[in-house]
Amino acid sequence: MSEEREMITGIEAPIYLQYKFTAGSAPARFLSQVKKGVLTGQRCPGCQNVYCPPRGSCAACGLPTEEEVVLSDKATVQSFTIVAIPIPNNPIQPPYIIANLVPDGSNISFIHLMSECVNEEVHIGQRVQALWKPEEEWDYAMDNIRYFKPIDEPDVPVDRIGTMPVTGWEG
Amino acid sequence: MSQPEVLTQAFELGFTYTRSTGPVVGRFLTELRDRRIFGIKGSDGRVIVPPMEYDPVTAEELSEFVEVGQQGEIVSFAWVKEPRAAHPFDRPFAWAMIKLDGADVAMIHCVAAQSEGELATGARVQAVWADETRGFITDIRCFELAQEN
User: Fold this and answer.
1) ipTM score for this prediction
2) Which range of residues forms the domain containing residue B111?
3) Looking at CA atoms only, how far is residue A18 from chain B in angstroms?
4) Do A23 and B17 touch (CB under 8 A)?
5) What residues make up the domain containing A44?
6) Helix, strand, or coil here: A143?
7) Could you give the CA distance from residue A161 to residue A49 in angstroms, rounded to a whole number?
8) Whole-prediction pTM value?
9) Measured between CB atoms, does A66 come within 8 Å of chain B?
10) Measured by CB atoms within 10 angstroms of the end CB, which terminus of chain B is less buried, N or C?
11) How would you write the pLDDT of chain B (149 residues) with one tens digit per residue?
């Protein structure tokens, strides 16, 4: 009863934005391949850079990127962060690693999780590989890959990150 | 090259804000919970509803709360023919600027009416309270045309 009489000091004021997201032709093609367990990019006919995930055009040259390129599921850590704060509705418990990873054969990175690693030992240039979910769970989504885990390959020097061929890194 | 399927997905982005009300808006909401409407007196003597924290003329802090009436008149209104999901009614209603008795500025709220034709600038309206109040602007469920005395 006494609590009922307490002064109002705060209100909940949530905002929910409802979208219907349509992937567009380049991301749709990419996701259709991800559903089959294949990472792909698209190559710019001008600068030859390979984009993953592809957006359908080259941000640098302004050219459409028509050529589809199959990539490796091995990648290099370009940058990373250790997340220490829980995010509402995110089932992953901190601390965990979010990294910008450049797959072999691509020139730009995408963001994904790293696991099976010692967080304090994760470093730029580290070699990792995708750990895929069981095939029957594959959908049109990047979380077909549960996370990337370190593999026993030599580090890629900083100035070589983003230039690995699809055939991989010999060290 | 593979022909892409059209991939579409529903997606909700939520900002789950909580806001501190401060002493002035907090008092306003606290009074709403008790089914009373309060404004605040400005340096020029005007009663401002909902209450402002700082004087619109001098920028001085305001603190003189004044209870105002639960009836007032429509200063202007917009009839909503097709309510959307976030609206307070699922049938046509009006958003209105309502100047409550004892107030010098109008406050926005919703007005329930059978049709647009029932409403007019200058029409007298009366606050209708929610069955349960909790210290929120929706404690006033709506306004409706005041009964003639």
Assistant:
1) 0.80
2) 22-145
3) 5
4) no
5) 25-160
6) helix
7) 13
8) 0.69
9) yes
10) C
11) 555 578 999 999 999 899 999 999 999 999 999 999 999 999 999 999 999 999 999 999 999 999 999 999 999 999 999 999 889 999 999 999 999 999 999 999 999 999 999 999 999 999 999 999 999 999 999 999 998 75
